[in-house]
Amino acid sequence: MSDWIESGGRLARPRIANGTWARSAGRVMVSLGLTMLVLAAAMQIARARDPDGRYANSPLKEWFDGLRSGKGPCCSDADGSAVSDVDWESKDGHYRVRLDGAWVDVPDEAVVTEPNRVGRAMVWPIKSYMGVTIRCFMPGSMT
To answer: Which residue from 6, 22, 52, 124 could staple onto 80, CB 3.0 to 4.6 Å apart?
Structure first.
């Protein structure tokens, strides 16, 4: 009987016990979580890809803009970066890349299959509160 309270001269269960308060709190938490997810996605998209215009006149700009993997366009949601030869490897037909000191497996659908015009390995990671995923990976020539 310890979870009963007196309300207006009669015993009643507190709101948490009948689920009303719990359902309301759950809705608030889901709404807050969705808001945070949408905000994080908007921040990723809104980030400038070429804030000072230094790559606007590159002869490879159109090629980079058109790169795709099985996960979609590489430059749409993530900034690409070159990867040193010691920070990527291939084993049994699969790739992995070292990001921030940790090895991350590259999903097969994230591998860019067209020829690499820059020669260096490139990766387009997407970092979120759930960890790092690879949007695109383009193997290099290992020279």
So the answer is: 124
